[in-house]
Amino acid sequence: MIYQMNGTDYAEFTSELNHQEFYFDVDKDIKLHGVLFKPDSLEPIGTIFHYSGKGMHLMSSIQKSYKPLLKKGFQVFCFERRDFGKSTGEANNSLVLKKDALFVFDKVTKMNEIKGKPIVIWGQSLGGTFATMTASERQEKIKGLILEGTFSSFPDIGKVYARILKLENFKWIVPLIMNNDFPAEEEIKKLNIPTLILHSKSDVQVPYKLGRNIYDASNKANTQFWDINSKHIMAIYDYEDQYVNEFIKMIKS
């Protein structure tokens, strides 16, 4: 329920934005689809590696969220996890998805379009867990990490789903049956690069407390928390100028 996409796809990728499409061979007969969105006329000032939320494939409103970043000169890369969008395979194992995330990051950072430019990792919702894990294992390659609406661990969000599904009386069993691979609240402790965590107090999909749990576990010398009032992972629209400025500050740090 947390990371399986159940075959959510679309017929063809199209975009009015300047972009370059990629397919990554990660396993036998398994390809992951990714796109690098580029500013129209500016030489890119940096790259944002985006780990998207559960339902954010590359033909969703995700493209709209990139426009303010492209306008300021960033290029943005995102890929679709297995069994989602134009990617193949099955998303039935979080450790396999972790391996995919690192594989694609390593491939992308070696591209001529990316090399020599500062990189910021951006994770939203489910994507924040993969973003934090990647940042902790590749922090020598990046300038910073920005998380929005992210949960502290898979069991923590599993308990939330138990409540939504009217299984409140059984939430105690979630930590016993659900894996706890690369919890964000543990991975965040390894970071010594600039990190920003933002979370809305009115977020009904990932409760505010789960974002605070990540911050509470972090190294306060390099981590900031930004309280917002917005819908789940919608701050790029409600706080556009301030949000984009956070990316700019990171590449200049």
TrEMBL record:
Stored InterPro entries: AB_hydrolase_1, AB_hydrolase_fold
Domain (AB hydrolase-1) ranges: 68-160
Name of the protein in question: AB hydrolase-1 domain-containing protein
Gene source species: Tenacibaculum holothuriorum
